[in-house]
Amino acid sequence: MSPGLKFIRLHFYPTSYSGIRKISEAEFSVTAGDYTLLNSFKPSVMATTLKSPYVTKDYFFNLKKPIVNITFAPSLEDSDSFAFVNGIEIYSMPLKLSDYGVNGTSSNATEILYRINVGVNSQNEPFWNGLDDQYLQGSINGTLIEAYDDHIDYNKSPWTLSEYGAPWDLYSKARTIGGGDEAANMGYNLTWTFSIDSGFSYIVRLHFCEIQLFVTEVNQRVFKVYINNKTVESSLDIVAMAGGPLVAMHKDYTITVPESKGGTKLWLALQPNVDSNPKLADVILNGIEIMKLSDTRNNLAAHVLQVENEDRSGSIPTSNIFLGMVICLVVGISAVSLIAYMLSHWFLLRYDVNVRKASSLICKSSEYSRKFPLEEIKAATNNFSEARLLGYGGFGKVYEGLLDDGITKVAVKRKNPESNQGLQEFKTEVELLSSFRHMNIVSLLGYCEEESELILVYDYMANGTLRDHLYQTQNPPLSWTRRLKICIGAARGLHYLHTGTEHSIIHRDIKSTNILLDQEWVAKVSDFGLSKVGKISGSNRSQISPGPKGTFGYLDPEYGRNRTLTRKSDVYSFGVVLFEVLCARPAVNPEPNEDDQTKVSLARWALHFYGSEKIDLLIEPYLRGKIKSECLVTFVEIAVRCLASRQMDRPSISDVLGKLEQALVLQENAVDDLNVQIKDA
């Protein structure tokens, strides 16, 4: 084999084979030359998780010698483990396809995680058989469109591309917001999320082609691009950048994801930009590729264990699976030029799986979290020093801790023996948070259960709780835009709980103290000790709870009366939080000798003033004159709908999220003369 850039695909088909012991015991690592591709990999677990009979893994790397050793090494932690592979494909890379994070002199290896066709699946293009539907987040899915002309220009300088790298079918279809309502479009983003490993750098390649008949000139469609809440394009105009319509182009963005416990999510969002008064308030995207780069140790294997329950599509012909048992291969084959259809299907499969043995009362999902010894926790908190105290919660005290020789700052929650929450809430918190992977859900780093202590260890949230910045605080008040973004982040986290997991999760204790803020002011939903898990497919499906649990002032009145718990119970609580954000008042505000009960309950107080058409009296004095009128109306109306007395009359969290996103756009894009002019009460 000649040195140079190579593509390698590994096939695993975990099924029963004659003469082989249980396939579920297979656990191994894979190296190719100097590169570690997989570590503690269990194909049977991966296939089950992906709901697929097979697993394929795709890589690019630079071969420096005419021979490469591909080694499959059984796990040393289990004497019954063994290694297997069903097929190996190696191809030489043509020059036009050699820009996937590696080149002729690069020491990086690359794993292809996703190749997504943002549009309609084509049976004629097996390269891009992964659709984007399952990765869409937020309140809208947008509109699928097709090119008005069959000719897609691949050779417009400087975007000269190869049809082998991204075929015509990819660029001839796209997703937009659509709908025809320009004012409404301003309130929405198109958002996708992808599971990735922490501790690596990634290339995110976005494919664009302006294919709509009525978009042929500059400044007809302009939009923003965000990756992980960072603006990477503030005014992207495809016609201007490509030099015209129907021109295939792509843009690459490199991001680095710091190492953390567990996996994480990559967020991609497109939002209309109307600053230059374009013809449309809309966005467009044709394709997405995400590629992981090897780290400084030539490693591509995930640093931590993670399993995702996400459906995958695609099929592989039986002839493409080569049955056989291989533990160590020395590959020396003639270089083969890469031809488009020789690569079979590009599958969206990733993540190695490492299943550790449980050693505690916590269920298997906690295996994704670290179990800390008590001595390490005591050292991290200076033996639970009051000087390290951050605050109090229903579970107990929360301390600042320092791990890894003082490098990693964490939050340590220690159970109070007198707390009403106990072992069951502790187990629920660990089990749920160990399985969550979302940027708006607090990250659980680990736990400790030793010497009657129940302790939870989280990522440190530098800006504390949302409540810390609203009232009864010495912190400076937050701007309205920042408050809106925090509400949107919390809504996204709640939307994930309700719709983004295998079983719907009802939080049951949404409140401003359970919304945490990291150093970048990203909102994180926290405290899952009271959460309920169930197979709830619709918002009207309910559970009968033996007794209402939650926090007074946030509790769904229908849940309190009838013990009927649904996702709409969380929506009610979130509505109270929205009014906390607007009014800077606590959910319950008993005052001495107060006879007017509408002033005791924030929810009742807010509904009273809304019904009296005195919205201006709701607003915190600091915010008066700073909120645009359309934004205020949109925000208050959705908050009021959340507080409907009947669950069936409340919006879904998806609807709430959409309205909050719309409110933010109205706030940021409204002209100055639309400011709310409010007289002090």
TrEMBL record:
Keywords carried by this UniProt record: ATP-binding, Glycoprotein, Kinase, Membrane, Nucleotide-binding, Serine/threonine-protein kinase, Signal, Transferase, Transmembrane, Transmembrane helix
Q: Where in the cell is it found?
A: Membrane
- The regions listed as transmembrane in this protein's record are 321-349
- The main place the protein resides is membrane
Q: Decide whether keyword Cell wall biogenesis/degradation is in the record.
A: no
Q: Which GO terms describe its cellular component?
A: plasma membrane; plasmodesma
| Entries under InterPro entries matching the protein | ANXUR1/2-like (IPR045272), Kinase-like_dom_sf (IPR011009), Malectin-like_Carb-bd_dom (IPR024788), Prot_kinase_dom (IPR000719), Protein_kinase_ATP_BS (IPR017441), Ser-Thr/Tyr_kinase_cat_dom (IPR001245), Ser/Thr_kinase_AS (IPR008271)
The name under which this protein is listed is: Protein kinase domain-containing protein
What species is this protein from? Answer: Gossypium barbadense (Sea Island cotton)
